[in-house]
Specification:
By secondary structure, the protein is mostly helical. It is built from two helices and three strands. Strand 1 (about 105-110) and strand 2 form a beta hairpin.
């Protein structure tokens, strides 16, 4: 018998260095994917905010048709103000009063552009801005 037959078989596998290289590579790929998806999330939320602005504007108009004037605040779309007998709401849910970024819509009555102005302030939730931070009004 030779010595090689009695020797335990050599185990093969990944070295620690190979495993670290794979982990680093996966981290780099994950970072790239997250940055790409993050931009698409903002784009989707911005588009949804513009659609929600149009929907909320129609709800304000529906309220105005029933009551005779736009509400003093957007809360009147959710809960009936005291003394209004022609209120046939609720016209909106409380969640409809916040944009997809979690900010409240801007609202002025009387508006500078019509009976009321409804404003989606974009990602930053503040007036002004460019790109996904740009404002959109119901008059546009």
């Amino acid at each position: 018998m030779s010595l090689s037959k009695n020797a335990p078989p050599r185990q093969t596998g990944f070295t620690l260095l190979e495993m670290l290289a794979v982990i680093v590579l996966l981290g780099v790929i994950a970072t790239i994917v997250v940055s790409q998806v993050g931009g698409n999330v903002d784009k989707g939320k911005y588009g949804a905010g513009k659609a929600q602005l149009a929907s909320l504007s129609m709800k304000v108009e529906s309220y105005a048709l029933d009551v005779g004037a736009p509400p003093r605040s957007l809360d009147a779309l959710v809960t009936q103000p005291e003394g209004l007998s022609q209120w046939f709401g609720p016209y909106a849910k409380a969640s409809d009063l916040r944009d997809p970024f979690g900010h409240e819509f801007g609202y002025r009555v009387p508006g500078e552009h019509g009976a009321f102005d409804l404003i989606f302030y974009g990602r930053d939730g503040a007036a002004g801005g460019e790109g996904f931070d740009a404002d959109v009004g119901n008059w546009e």
